[in-house]
Each structure stands twice: as C-alpha cells, then as structure tokens.
Amino acid sequence: MNSYSSSSDTTKALLNWYTTHRRALPWRESNDPYRVWISEIILQQTRIEQGIPYYYKILNRFPDVQSMANAPLDELLKLWQGLGYYSRARNMHFAACQIVNEYEGLFPSSYENLIGLKGIGEYTAAAISSISFGEAKAVVDGNVFRFLSRFFGLQTPINTTEGKKQFTQIAQKLIDPIHPGDYNQAIMDFGSIQCTPSGPDCQTCPFSVNCFAYSQGVVQKYPYKLPAKEKQDRYFLYFCITDGISTWIQQRKNRDIWQDLWEFPLVEETSPIQPEKHFINKYLNADSDTKVLIGKPTHVKHVLSHRVIHATFLPIRIDTSSIVSGSLQKIPLTELNKFAIPRLIERYLTNHAPFNLIL
Ligand code: SF4
Hints:
By secondary structure, this protein is an alpha+beta fold. The chain has helices at 9-21, 33-43, 48-61, 65-70, 73-80, 87-102, 111-114, 122-133, 142-152, 161-174, 180-193, 212-216, 277-280, 343-351; strands at 232-242, 246-251, 262-263, 266-269, 292-294, 298-303, 307-318, 329-332.
C-alpha cells in the first residue's frame, strides 16, 4: 500500500506515475503561492523551456508581491518582452496591487478569493489553491483534456461550454482530496510527457490496458474540437523616423493587442498598404524646404493566435525634428531598448538598421 491508497485506481496510477516521472521545475522547489502564481501565468501560453528564464528574471527583480506592486507597470512589461500575450503581465501587475491593497500583501488562500484577482481564471485559481493551500480543486487544461478524452473516449468538443463542464466534473471526481496539488501536477505532467499531442507513449503507459482511444486505435482523433475561426488579417505601416540622434514612438492605449507597449508611429488599414506620401504626412509637417529621405520598405509577417499582422517598416531620415508631430514621444536612439516593445518590432530591429539612413 502506498501513500496515495485513499484514491481511485486511476488517480492512484497517476500519482504513482508522478512519483517516478515528476519534472524538477524551479517553481516546485517550494509551494510558495507567489512563485506558483508567476509560473502558472507565464506557462498559460508559453512552453516550459521558454518560460524558465522569464520566471527567474521576474523573480530576481520582484522577489515578492510587494516589490511587484510598488514598481511601475512598464518595468514588468519590459521584463515580459518577447513572451507575447502582454495582457498577462498587465493583469499580473494589477493583481499584485490588489493583493497588497485588499489582502495586506498576503496571498489569498482560497479558490474563491483567488479567482477574484485580475488575470486569475478557474485553471490558475485551482492550481494555486491546490498546490499552495491543499484545496481539492481540479485543474483542467489542454493536457487534462487530452488525457481524459482519450482514456474515457469522451467526444464532447473541448472548445464548448458543455465540454468544459463535462471535463471539469470528471477531473473533480478524480482529484485526490489528501494530495490535490500532487494530483493536479501529476495529470499536467502526464499530459505533457506521456500522453502527448502527436506522439503519445502508449507502449509504456500505465493506462494502456483500459485506455479507450488506444484500445480502438483512434488516439489521434482525441480530443474532439470544433473547427477554429479563421485568423483576421491586419495591415500595419510603421514609420521609423530619425534625425540621426532621436526617434519617435507612441504607446498603444486602446483595448487591443499590445496595450501599453511602445511602437513606432503607425497607420493601420484593412487591406494591403502602399507607403504613400499622404500617410507619411500624418506624422510629418514637411514643406518643400525640408529634407526628407525615405528608405526602402521592409515587409514582416507576424502571426498571433487570432490575427496575422502584415507589417511594413519604412525608414525615414529628416534634417530637423521640428517637423515631427507633437503627439509622438521623442527619445534618444540609444534609449529605445529601455522601452517595452512588441515582439514584431523587436524582430524587425534585430535584423534591420532603419536609423542608418544618411541625408
Ligand atoms: S494509452 Fe496512450 S492515449 Fe491512452 S492514456 Fe496512455 S498515452 Fe494516452
């Protein structure tokens, strides 16, 4: 008899598997809710290998929730640069302030209170409450959908309300009430190591005898999903303006992708854009006496989860900064790297030198 003997056979098998295959991850060194929270938010849309350096970076700069709440949002956005889905960082900063202001800096310990924090949904609240506080709340993520759908042969599409409800109920029945944190981490690890999307290791799987999908030879059909909507195309024309010393940027303020990040002045259209002069005049009050040199445009395609951005970057060299629109923020070229910018612009700047134009 092992320490997990109070659970169902499926749960016991999962926990036993976890004893042997448990991944040594930095946030598993303790059950500190602050660390679990940071890791779970990072891993929402990021692979573990990519997320680990960001986890250390954020923890080094903000060792506790107070230090994060006391810092400006821009600082967290800068640390987050390259991870994408920046609303995660904005919500994280907001939630840190909520914890400091509403809970005197102590992480709330129940699922009900955790889910009231900005950016913490059912999955993250279940992960933190079970791992850090021993509450029996089952997580349901892509790994859980995959394993449960294959093992039980569940055909309800997972991207429907009905599917979410059904899988949550089953996961909740399976959770070990004595070791809920271990159970949740076990099923997540099992899905990402053994019952993987394209190459599940069914030969060595402890569930192969009873697994519905494996016994029917239809593993790849699971989980069932309704077809995804088509991605929306957007067309961005960016102006990389310089007078040789400075450049001009603006902060995205609308409720849209990349909110609060910085970017070059932009024109957006719903169809492909030609970088014509009247677009340039939107930001430059140039007359016939002003020298304006327009460089070669560069096209960059950037794919997001629901959108494809077709960006054109246009280098522009001017001889006097007085012609640039006052709505833009002027910064020294040497300080551009201090601002949090979208990955698209970072990619462009890594491969091109738009400020090398000479008049
Ligand atoms: S037998 Fe294969 S499909 Fe079934 S649970 Fe195991 S790894 Fe997943």
